[in-house]
Design the sequence.
């Protein structure tokens, strides 16, 4: 087993004046499940392909364990990859597909057999070993692709959107299976996805990327509760965090946030930081997660200084919870996530209390989170 | 001698250096000694020819545009001789035979003799009479990561079948011929006869597997084209020409794709043959907004839309976006270019425009 370290890694393609990956520094611990997440074109797959050796590193150093592997061919890096298009070998049955990598490396037959059967048992595909890929379902094929990687017993697993070809139900199931499997195998895993739910549920640590730069690398909990900038705050969480542009004013010894439909008091702890950093009187962006807007009377009574009034434009009932698209707060719709049994309807006027302990304040120019920088 | 070494030699001598093939008779006619060996040099008043390898009556040479001093000539001859000893001593009989066949195929393609049959003098001829699946590999790994013939041949044989032939053509380019029995093996139903579409589907997935295998072993960029089964003794030259053209068209029109299928580039082949002036006029006439395709999001959206046979739901899934986002993007294209890709006729025009745009952009 081994960790992976990237030191000032850059990727520049010939003919392009902009780097696809810029100054990428990351230390991935041994046995860690690290997820690279970001919108398409952010450089996450390119980074993974550089680690795999499928792409040249233009600048910087890549370590697997203690060894610099920039110039090492993929086959000698002791890694195993699983991709979205898990190209199973159509002329080989499942057993042969899983055994192929070992056969190529001249493993003994009994060792190949042991590893294949063990992986098949782990993935619950023992009954499929004689089948050809054509006779398998999408989920089964995906498990064979995983099996092909597992039998290699590599130092590092690399996975690039391995669940994208599966339907929603199967994806959820496989998500849990892969997490369990990686915990059991205790092997470093680097996983690329565009799906923040996958990232949040699977990763020990998540790296959020945008335009080739790391935005933030942290645990799911830290990313959600302490996003470093506006991009991370908006990218992590569904429905996304609400952003309202407004002004901070000092009034009667307290700091208040004012914007269309808002005149709410900032908590004393946050006010101190804002005063110290000179944000009073300035325009800022307030970030509120949908679940931090409360319609329960008990909350409204307890927080009279943070209450806002709004009209429900659309109410989406998902059963266990309800998304309210609200008018009258800021320039755009604000979304609140409330209990599915609240019984709220479209066009209804409601009062909501904001949990001001949970709000984030972003500098309007730098888009950095004032409390996290 | 590979391209990098040729370039290095050219830089050292500060002149143009190219490779060429001469027959022994031509070599003697130009003033060279009989029975030439690697490292022998022929100097004329304005150029210098060095034999790098002797293949029967054919001589692989490098042609230097200029003359060398006696010391330079001696040193270069010595270096070439040392270099020539290594591969031939390490090469197996099979490699030598495959190289000879590859050279013949290459010469026939260059001469436009597409119908030429493999001549009797080729030792491998007797292995080319059965139906075989042809793959053309163009693998551009870094020089230090490039596999040797032996490594590549062993890997491909392990993957496809024991009787698979690997034939080196040009630098980084190989023809792979594998028994067509592999298709029956791949068919899970075990039918003796495969349908045409089923064959194509299997060929595509075999190619994907081969591509994954090669890139995960050696990295780098690897383009592969595959053809339907042939009898190579009669069709080797033709299929190399066809698959080369397929890779050329694939790389020209579909940057980023590395698996190229001849049956998917018909339109590209047609467009490639249209004169530049006619193409430009068509683009000018059709495009309401010449900067439409400079937006990478629009290009990616249209590429995905066409690859999914204009199916909105499937395209949205492929692009990981909401269906409504895709509809918004398609409406935006309609608004800006005046072409609605959800209607068949406009879709045809936009598809052609997009292909032509990619070629123009790359120029």
Sequence:
């Amino acid at each position: 087993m081994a960790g992976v370290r990237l030191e000032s890694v850059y990727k520049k393609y010939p003919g392009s004046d902009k780097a696809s990956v810029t100054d990428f520094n990351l230390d991935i611990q041994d046995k860690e499940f690290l997820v690279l997440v970001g919108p398409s074109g952010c450089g996450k797959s390119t980074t993974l392909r550089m680690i795999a050796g499928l792409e040249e590193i233009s600048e910087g150093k890549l370590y697997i364990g203690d060894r610099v592997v920039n110039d090492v061919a993929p086959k000698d890096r002791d890694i195993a990859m699983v991709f979205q298009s898990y190209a199973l070998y159509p002329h080989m049955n499942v057993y042969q597909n899983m055994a192929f990598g070992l056969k190529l490396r001249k493993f003994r037959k009994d060792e190949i057999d042991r590893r294949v059967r063990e992986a098949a048992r782990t993935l619950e595909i023992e009954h499929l070993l004689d089948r050809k890929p054509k006779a398998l379902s999408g989920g089964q094929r995906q498990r064979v692709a995983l099996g092909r990687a597992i039998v290699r017993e590599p130092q590092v697993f690399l996975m690039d959107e391995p669940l994208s070809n599966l339907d929603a139900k199967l994806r959820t199931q496989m998500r849990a299976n892969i997490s369990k499997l990686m915990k059991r195998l205790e092997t470093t895993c680097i996983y690329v996805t565009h799906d923040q739910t996958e990232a949040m549920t699977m990763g020990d640590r998540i790296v959020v990327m945008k335009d080739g730069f790391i935005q933030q690398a942290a645990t799911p909990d830290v990313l959600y509760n302490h996003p470093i900038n506006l991009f991370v705050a908006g990218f992590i969480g569904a429905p996304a965090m609400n952003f309202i542009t407004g002004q901070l004013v000092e009034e009667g010894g307290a700091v208040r946030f004012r914007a269309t439909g808002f005149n709410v008091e900032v908590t004393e702890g946050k006010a101190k930081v804002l005063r110290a950093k000179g944000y009073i009187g300035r325009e800022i962006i307030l970030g509120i997660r949908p679940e931090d807007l409360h319609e329960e009377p008990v909350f409204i009574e307890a927080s009279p200084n943070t209450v806002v009034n709004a009209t429900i434009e659309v109410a989406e009932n998902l059963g266990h919870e309800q998304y309210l698209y609200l008018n009258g707060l800021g320039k755009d719709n604000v979304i609140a996530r409330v209990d599915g049994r609240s019984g709220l309807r479209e066009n209804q006027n409601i009062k909501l209390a904001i949990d001001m302990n949970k709000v984030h304040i972003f500098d309007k120019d730098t888009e950095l989170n004032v409390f996290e920088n | 001698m590979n391209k990098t070494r040729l370039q290095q030699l050219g830089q050292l001598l500060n002149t143009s250096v190219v490779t060429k093939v001469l027959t022994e008779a031509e070599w003697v006619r130009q003033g060279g000694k009989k029975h030439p060996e690697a490292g022998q040099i022929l100097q004329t008043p304005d150029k210098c020819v060095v034999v790098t390898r002797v293949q029967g009556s054919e001589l692989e040479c490098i042609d230097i545009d200029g003359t060398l001093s006696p010391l330079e000539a001696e040193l270069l001859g010595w270096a070439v001789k040392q270099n020539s000893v290594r591969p031939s001593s390490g090469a197996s009989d099979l490699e030598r035979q495959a190289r000879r066949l590859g050279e013949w195929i290459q010469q026939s393609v260059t001469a436009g003799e597409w119908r030429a049959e493999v001549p009797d003098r080729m030792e491998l001829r007797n292995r080319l009479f059965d139906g075989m699946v042809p793959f053309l590999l163009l693998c551009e790994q870094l020089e230090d990561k490039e596999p040797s013939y032996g490594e590549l041949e062993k890997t491909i044989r392990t993957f496809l079948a024991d009787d698979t032939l690997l034939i080196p053509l040009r630098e980084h380019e190989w023809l792979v011929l594998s028994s067509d029995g592999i298709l029956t093996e791949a068919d899970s139903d075990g039918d003796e006869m495969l349908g045409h579409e089923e064959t194509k589907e299997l060929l595509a997935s075999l190619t994907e597997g081969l591509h994954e295998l090669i890139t995960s072993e050696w990295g780098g960029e690897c383009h592969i084209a595959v053809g339907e089964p042939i009898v190579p003794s009669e069709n080797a030259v033709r299929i190399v020409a066809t698959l080369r053209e397929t890779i050329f068209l694939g790389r020209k029109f579909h940057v980023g794709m590395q698996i190229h299928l001849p049956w998917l580039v018909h339109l590209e082949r047609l467009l490639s043959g249209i004169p530049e002036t006619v193409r430009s006029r068509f683009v000018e006439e059709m495009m309401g907004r010449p900067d439409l395709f400079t937006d990478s999001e629009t290009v990616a959206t249209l590429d995905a839309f066409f690859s999914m046979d204009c199916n909105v739901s499937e395209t949205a899934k492929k692009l990981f976006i909401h269906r409504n986002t895709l509809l918004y993007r398609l409406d935006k294209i309609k608004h800006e270019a005046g072409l609605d890709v959800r209607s068949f006729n406009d879709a045809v025009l936009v598809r052609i425009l997009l292909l032509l745009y990619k070629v123009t952009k790359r120029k």
